[in-house]
Amino acid sequence: MTIQRLLVANRGEIARRVFRTCRDLGIETVAVHSDADAGMPFVADADAAVRLPGNTPAETYLRGDLVIEAARKAGADAIHPGYGFLSENAAFAQQVVDAGLTWVGPTPDSIERMGSKIESKKLMEAAGVPVLGELTPETATAEDLPVLVKASAGGGGRGMRIVRELDQLRGEIEAAQSEAASSFGDGTVFVEPYIQSGRHIEVQVLGTADGAIVLGERDCSVQRRHQKVIEEAPAPALPDATRKALHEAAKAAAEAIDYRGAGTVEFLYDVSKDRFYFLEMNTRLQVEHPVTEAVYGVDLVALQIAVAEGAPLLEDVPSVPQGHAIEVRLYAEDPVAGYQPQSGTITRFEVPGVVSEFRTTGYGIRLDSGVGSGDEIGTFYDAMIAKVIVWAPSRDRALRQLAGALARAEIHGLRTNRDLLVNLLRDPVVVDATMDTTWLDGADLSLLGAAPGGEQTVPLSGFAAAIALAERARLGARVQSRIPAGFRNVVAQPQETLFLLGDGGDELPVRWYGGRTFSSADLDDVVVVSAGPDQVVLETGGVRRTFAVRVAGDQVDVESPLGHVPLRRKPRFVDPATAVAAGSLLAPMPGSVIAVHAQVGDAVAEGAPILVMEAMKMQHTIAAPYSGTVTELAATTGQQVEAGTVLAVVTPDPDTAENPDAEEDN
User: Fold this and answer.
1) What pTM was estimated for this model as a whole?
2) One of 63, 284, 415, 545 is an active-site residue; which one?
3) Do 102 and 3 touch, CB atoms closer than 8 A?
């Protein structure tokens, strides 16, 4: 049986990834898309596209009936689920089969047996694979702490809570159930012992009619809030005997359920005891599959399709990895602000040194991205911008090359975790491979998430931006454009350009002198070597650096070897109507209000939860900034709000020490 036309029941980066392989194999492609995604690159990549009315996942990508109907409309004979959404939904897989379509994935029975983390652990235990014991609120004791509450369905850290106090267990279970139900449509959770110094090691398997093939392992230990940040293959600093045992356990797990297609068996490795435990099996393609493709020189999507078409065991699948591959997940988020998701338009997205997109071609940088310059990061879906992957002959070279490419990348329009990734790839903990799954959660993000240039970065970048804007204004003048910018016959005081850091943060005043040459009124030992509307060269302490200045409306982005600095020109006049009262709780990002825990007139303590918002499939609690009284409450459950919307107002108690002044939304 040969697939002729394949529909991808997914969106973004993974849809584009599957389409890439289909083009190589000569298979026609069909995309499905929500209204919010109508203009996204993955839709244009497909040979045909079918609209799924609505925006939210529940209205669109989680509607299996609509997806199958779309396949019928477009004449598709196969469906690839990608990852997330319906990829591990056994009922949907069965619907695909019942509709006479080819399902590019494991059998519905395999998905069902491994889909429940509770039942799969029992199955693995019977197959001789080591597992962690299960606890309940009734059986858990103080001696068992800390424990982990985990969603039975899904992944990505959603529906997961670490509990360190026994009296908090039931409340955290309820919170995890709510988040799991929202993300996966299944609120089932379970409790197990929590290993604090563990590493996350996963093994890639490919199940065929002739048995399971093992394609090595990946280390995914650098995580934030149980979501992977850096993945690499092979896993570093792993004893050979342990590596072999992991492969054997994964092979046994796959063959225990007669698994077909690509899948990943995940383990928690206790470094201190050199022991590992089964976590779960992902019955789908993993986000981090490119690192395995890089070191084994294979196309996992092509192998998935081959298995679905009934191909026999592939004798030419390599058994020994070559070199080292590392992948990072580039997110629209602000790590310093608690990984707060960001939304908006990517005004510029350029990564230097990219040798391929969505395919493995050997040494160098691979970019798998669902967006590009001018595309929108919305609030309905995950905030991942791209996966950036590198393959090199050694781990050290891979770390250095990937860090260098990211440091020189230009990603403008919204905040990202780019600086965090660069710093992580250069951190001794990662370089020496001593990381565990909790290390990043305890790190100082004000340092790890900062631009690598240190304290010089912002003032020098601001000075370069002010000069570039002055040159831009001079060159754009209709008269006297040959007069030097900022020229004065008698200099009384410096010129001043006002910026806001980022999307409206602290004010950055830049004072400078113009004329035949530029100089700074605030920075010592800075020489302006050359100045133009797009590029400024500064010399500090005998060291020259080039600052590229990108202007898009009021947004000014400065790139240099010191790092990226996003600025916004502050307007000279502010509309008084934009002022908000002291104690106003503003929506930190666009999203929906899913819970309101207070009423007007309630007395609340500092830190008390007032509302809960959901954005990009994650929940965010908005708490009282100090003790006081709720005097306004504009938000209601189910309401969609924009960033900066006033949700509630807490008036401080008279004896509250901190009573902030009214803020202005500039």
Assistant:
1) 0.84
2) 284
3) yes
